[in-house]
Structures are given as structure tokens and as C-alpha cells.
Task: structure prediction
Amino acid sequence: MRKKVFIATAIVLSFAVGAISNAATNLEVIQANLNHGISFLLNGEAWIPKDANGAKTAPISYKGTTYIPLRAVAEATGAEVTWDSKSQTISINTVKQNESSAPKVRMPFSADTVSHVQKRNDIHANGITRNKEELLFGETQYTAAFAVYDVGNFNRDVTFKVKDGTTRVGVLIGYKVDSDRNESEAMYSISGNGSTFAAGVVKSGTVVETQFELPKGVTELTLTFRDPNGSGAGYLIWDESWVE
Result:
């Protein structure tokens, strides 16, 4: 019985020694120093790196580079760290799964999602209109729009604002001139924060649709019209326009 126990123990020890020996082949002995004189600021506030057990850890100085525990830095900045001992792999995830997979919510234009920005001394933008005659395009009757009048050879625009956090916008754009000049068309563009997100041409009496991604932090957008050959009115139509 003792002989069998001895043999089994020897086999287990041989596996353990083999595993340790295999891990040791990837280790390199260095000479470094714990540096207790270094302090840290995280977003302007004092921060102390700690190990997995919550104990304070001092950074290590080695050949001009400072090293601190990866988990301490990652978790302090909102990342997740996992360790796979079998494959000896560290995984760092900067976006939580429930955030990355959360569905985007699409909401229609309304007084709750967009607002008109009135510029000082702006006599061309009329803000919101619900005039049925204005908003009748062909056989389609729209109900509300941001409007800009006196579109001609000079740029005319209307500025609107979406909620912070909006990532995508889809809009309907209409244009109208006098009934005897229906062949006219206007060039349009939508811009904000120095960038142009959409541009195209809309013929008089018609409506076109465009959609675009909105960079983080951009909330104020300007729709600009220009018609070198006529004078009309441009519309950012609420109906079927949306934000995400």
C-alpha cells in the first residue's frame, strides 16, 4: 500500500515539476527597484495603485521605465482585465459587453428631440412652420418643418440642435420655388463643428432623404441652401426624419 502511494505521489510531483519548469523557461531574471517616490494623478486627482487584494503597491523602476500593476491601471480607467492561466493570456476589454451590444433607439423629430437655433439678425430663417400649403409636395402632405426663405444665389441656412449623445441623423429635405419655375433646384449641405456630413441637390417641388453619422460631441447642425438660378424656400421636414 505504501509503495502504491509513493508511486502515485511521485507521478504527481513529476507533472508539477514539469509545469513549473515549462513556465520558468519564459521567465527572465532582472534587477529592478521599487520606487516609493513616485505619485500618481488620475483625472487630476491623487491615485494609489493597488494589487488584487487591495494592498498598496509601489511602482517599479527599470531601465528608465516605470512599471505598475496592469490590473490596477486598467480597472481605474474603466477597463476589464481577465487572466487565462491555461493559455497564459491577459485580456483587456475597454467596452463592457452590455454597452457594446445595447440596441440604438431611433426617435422621430419632435420638440423633445430637436430644437431650432435662432441666430441674431437672421431674417431668412423662419424656424418651425406647420403651414399645410407650404408643406404640400406633390400629393404628399407633411405636417411640420424647419424652414429657410429667400434661397437664391447666396447661401441661406437654418440651424438646429439635437440632444447630446446623438450618434446618427436621418432627415427629409424639401425645396420650393414659384410655380412657374418648377425646373429650378437647390444645392444643400448639412454641417457642424467645421465638418460637412451630407450634401446634394433637391429639385423644386420634391423631397430627398439623407442620413449620416454624427461624431461625439457634435449637437448643433446647419442646413444650408443655395439656388444660383432662382429664389425659393428650403425645408428640413420633421415627418419621417429621425435621430439615434
